[in-house]
Amino acid sequence: MKSIKIPEATIIRLSVYSRYLDKIDIRKSSTVSSDDIAQSVGVNPFQVRKDLAYFGEFGIRGVGYNVKSLNQHLLKLLNLNVKCNIALVGFGKLGHALALYQGFKERGFVFTCIFDSDPQKIGTKVNGVEVISVDRLEEIVEQNHSRIGIISTPAKVAQEIANSLVKARVQSILNFAPVNLNIAPEISLRNVDLAVNLEFLTFNFDDE
Amino acid sequence: MKSIKIPEATIIRLSVYSRYLDKIDIRKSSTVSSDDIAQSVGVNPFQVRKDLAYFGEFGIRGVGYNVKSLNQHLLKLLNLNVKCNIALVGFGKLGHALALYQGFKERGFVFTCIFDSDPQKIGTKVNGVEVISVDRLEEIVEQNHSRIGIISTPAKVAQEIANSLVKARVQSILNFAPVNLNIAPEISLRNVDLAVNLEFLTFNFDDE
Known about the structure:
Two copies of one chain form a homodimer.
Chain A: H1 8-23, E1 31-32, H2 34-41, H3 45-53, E2 65-66, H4 67-77, E3 85-89, H5 93-100, H6 102-106, E4 110-116, E5 125-126, E6 129-133, H7 137-144, E7 148-151, H8 155-167, E8 172-175, E9 188-191, H9 194-203
Parallel strand pairs in A: 3-4, 3-7, 4-6, 7-8, 8-9
Antiparallel strand pairs in A: 1-2, 5-6
Helix pairs in contact in A: 1-4, 2-3
């Protein structure tokens, strides 16, 4: 299906476009133009049309896109039309924040299992999901058929956790620990380094 | 100084390269090749050379880059050679995680003021910084000359907070609230939407 290499930035924008479409009240307007989308998410209209053109012809010239059908297409492209079990490893401040993060819930992402090594945390519940000992990670993640593992542990144990997630057959890992992980190339890995976002801003400071 | 438009992806990679250089033990090796950098951060060597070429000639053919001087150049480009005061607004689970996030501290980012509206949180301290009532945001942020404001409040108050930060003369805003903010174009705004990272992974799922 996806034989053309789609740029990373395009994939990320698809996700942003879809979120915008989610918020349109289709009782008020059933269509949307590339100009509307572009303005709302802060890119230029040509970019919107180019991004969508990778996947076919969605719009009608002079009319725009049908909000509902475009969003259904995008959700399908992003594989969000099927439920996805996610395992969260590391229930510190960041892990707790992720478990409660409204932005995940809105897009249908649910954590089906949460792990930590701290006996004080094991057995507590968040959103009805119990925190389980990390010793049982491989067994439970495999049972749950979790396709994504999120690592929010301290850096020093992140590689070990990644190895366990791979053994438990996750397809993808989202890593919040500030460390480069060595992972087999068939596993999709995405590192979230929050400092990168700050440095993007400082780069753009006016020279003084 | 920065008259050429530098691609966003390049700026982000500069930050990633710099973090890698930070971790090299220069007692063991004072030089590094673009191949080493590329392999360690997971891009191709041509990309590394292209990214650095925007800013001049740093390497010596056949020898590579001097680790220390390249990193100093990168830190300067990223404006990390000067101290930057940051205001954090919203001290919920995510705000608390951000205040403790090791990845910020390692790169010299410090929160000089933290705000919340919850009387239970006001007056508590994290890393020696007291949580202050959000009513005093404009006054304190301006006094502190904070150049960056981080918003980790609920979505419904994020616009109001952004307006206050702009009045208090921040230059940049890093927004974690899942909402599009309307900000004057002279303020740099970066939205961190954590769900985008998950959707990047689900996009790459094998079709079943």
